Amino acid sequence: MPAGATVGGFSVRSAGIEIRGRCPAGSVMLVVALAANSIGRADSAALYGIHWWGYTQGQSIDQTPATLLDCPAYGGWDLETLLTHEGYFWGPWYILPLYAHLATQQNMTVITRVDYRWSETVPAPGNPDSPGWPAAVVDLVNTLADFCHIWVIGNEPNHIGAYEHWPDGTIPPADYAAIYRSVRNAIHTSARSSRLGPHVVLFTPVAPNPTSNDWLAEAIDAVPHEEIDGFAIHAYARMWISFHDQFASQLQVIDAKGLRDRPVYMTEMGIYAQPGNLTEEAAAAAFCREAFADVNTWNQGLGHHNIIGMTWFVYDSNQQNTGIWNPFSVEYYLGEGYPLGDPNDLFTAFEQTVDMRYPAGLVGTRGWPVPADFDRDGDVDAADFDHFRDCATGPAIPQWLSDCLDTRLDSDVDVDQMDFAIFQRCFSGQGRSADPLCRW
After folding, report:
1. The domain 48-355 belongs to what CATH superfamily?
2. If DSSP codes are grouped into helix, strand and coil, which group holds residue 396?
3. Tens digit of pLDDT for each residue in 410-424?
4. What is the pLDDT of residue 324?
């Protein structure tokens, strides 16, 4: 693997690793350099995140979200919403200082949702801005590419009656698919590269409702699968089906279309809690703990399409959010309702969730056990290599240590170049699902 290579959106920083085994005479028999000593995900290694950090240009950047997420020690995800035709306040130059701060000072990975306008998430046919919208999105991407490489195109296009200039206020699946393709391909062909990794252009999240999965399936069918980079999904409490069934059913649709290897991010999740109602705040606190735990458990299951990160809608209460979304806001409940430290306080519940240190999900689907996945975390990476290196013996020297038996990857009892050849075939990189059939 060459120095500086990228794998599926994750950066690989290289340095030499030596495996040394000794033959009976004591000379070095096996010296192998693997260009992956420092294999690091450019993106967050945590599951948890927030929607809207809260930012006002010219003011000091709020550090309370950093405290909540234990930044920069652990970091997390932040979802920001930008609009190409809604004025300076919602454009990239306004928020660029926040992006720079989060990426360079707080160990955060920013996901950007790109809309046309609030009343028209993507431009309708006949809109004079429609032909030039892909180029407008590329301009936005170019402004922020040093600090972001994950982009969501549009938002909940199946939302009934929500969008101007579209029939019935809803965007047909095929029309969204055509817009996604044109914007996604424009980014990949025309946008400048990001230092964080290849651009990942996510398919829109659907508005959770009884027909949302049908809309999603039709939209996927209208795009060549090789042109879908990944997916954003939404799931909420108190809907017609459970939070769990919402995300699991959307993943089932994606998997049924043969896209089990694509990254999935939950870019909105949350619960409405009526301000002033302590019972509802307590329910929101409980949901916060349960929802993150639920997805973390799901991500560990064999055959489960993983959710990489989750951003709670919303954190901010008084900057990007002008107050309309306060019933969902973590920041709002920091100063309202139950006091900080009470388990029924939503802010406290989020802190407790962060303290669980749930890891980010894998890219794609967790497979069956892989021979070289010694720590059984679903990938084959530098941590597994460290174990292999410690157990290497060289040809014809049996390896009988109980902790090293798993490194005997071929049919004999030593750990030598033949075993390392299998390890190389199985190597996936951190956070990437490894192939359970890699031995052959």
Report:
1. Glycosidases (3.20.20.80)
2. strand
3. 888 899 999 999 999
4. 93
Q: How many residues does the chain have?
A: 440
Is 352 strand, coil or helix? Answer: helix
Domain residue spans in the chain? 6-40+367-426, 48-355
Distance CA 411, CA 350 (A): 49
DSSP codes joined into one string, 218-282 = HHHHTS-GGG--EEEEEEESSSSS-HHHHHHHHHHHHHHTT-TTS-EEEEEEE----TT-HHHHH
Q: Among residues 318, 313, 274, 295, which one has the least CA distance to residue 155?
A: 313
Specify the DSSP class assigned to residue 198: S
Write b or e for each residue in 234-250: b if 16 or more Cβ atoms lie within 10 A of its Cβ, otherwise e: bbbbeeeeebeebbbbb
What are 77-132's pLDDT values in tens digits? 999 999 999 999 999 999 999 999 999 999 999 999 999 999 999 999 999 999 99
Measured CA to CA, the distance from residue 10 to residue 8 in angstroms comes to 6
